[in-house]
Design brief:
mainly beta, Jelly Rolls, 2 domains, globular
């Protein structure tokens, strides 16, 4: 059951700062999508208590003396930084789009980059103290979303059986964000992501890699409606992906690997009735947060 829904921020301005409604919860996920600027030297994604205490700093840095870059994780309390935990690689090259996900667990923050697990940061300060998030530095943002969900309702990273089906507890509502991670099969022809209700399909989102087109549609009482086609194909055979489907009052907004790719107006508007997510097709599925 959703705990305390907070509407996503679409194309927010950097520096970005917002309060987190109700603070962090066990099982909560934060998704940050955007693009690293070509001249970036660093940027920060901070989880904070007020303006002084940085509970988690995720800090990609780009320095010529260490190749393509590295990422620093750290905590600052009473004006003093702790010891840096470094990963000598960066998942976010300069000039490219990215998708960052931070999942709160009782022991740590589990951090994924572009749909793949990247790092883990053990709690130094209780996550329940966090009440604010900030993003600063040489980066553009397309999406910041907060998804509160009971831990038992999130499929933890691993290999999930495809076709995959799960319940969206409480149905959809404006502000809801659904996250799906996996890898497109090397010989993939098509993949399907569906949001369903008892009498039909509210959103059918189908990348068709064999035809290099994405098809969106809806189905009611067994009858398909008019297809919407897009020539923008953000998926690649053999490559990992992260899909984030944000439900706004009038549209579904789809982000793939940090880039906003497709918008689909609601045809079925009783959002609370939409309570099933299905994933099928030529892919390996590793993580789902309904």
């Amino acid at each position: 059951m959703a705990l305390n829904q907070q509407s996503p921020f679409i194309n927010p301005v950097v520096p970005f700062s917002c309060m987190i409604k109700g603070g962090l919860q066990n099982g909560m996920s934060i998704t940050v999508c955007g693009r690293v600027l070509p001249n970036a030297d660093r940027f920060n994604v901070n989880l904070q208590q007020g303006s002084e205490t940085v509970v988690l700093q995720f800090n990609p840095r780009y320095a010529s003396w260490i190749g393509s870059g590295y990422v620093v994780h750290n905590t600052c309390q009473y004006g003093k930084w702790g010891w840096e935990e470094r990963k000598i690689e960066t998942p976010f090259p300069k000039g490219q789009t990215f998708s960052l996900q931070i999942l709160v667990t009782p022991e740590s923050y589990k951090i994924s980059a572009n749909g793949k697990p990247f790092s883990e940061y053990k709690h130094r300060i209780a996550f329940s103290d966090v009440d604010r998030m900030c993003v600063v530095g040489k980066v553009e943002l397309s999406l910041v979303s907060f998804h509160y969900v009971a831990p038992s309702h999130a499929a933890l990273p691993g290999t999930l059986t495809v076709p995959y089906k799960t319940i969206i507890h409480g149905g959809l509502q404006p502000g809801k964000a659904i996250i799906i991670q996996g890898v497109i099969s090397p010989q993939a022809n098509r993949v399907v992501f569906s949001l369903r209700y008892r009498a039909g399909t509210a959103l059918y989102y189908s990348p068709r890699l064999d035809k290099k087109v994405v098809v969106c549609n809806s189905c009611k009482n067994g009858k398909w409606e008019i297809e919407e086609h897009s020539g923008l194909m953000p998926f690649e055979r053999g490559q990992p992906f992260q899909v984030t489907i944000c439900c706004s009052p009038n549209y579904y907004e789809v982000f793939v690997n940090g880039e906003q790719t497709h918008t689909y107006r609601h045809r079925y508007t009783n959002l609370a009735d939409i309570d099933v997510l299905e994933v099928s097709g030529d892919l390996q599925l590793s993580f789902v947060q309904p």
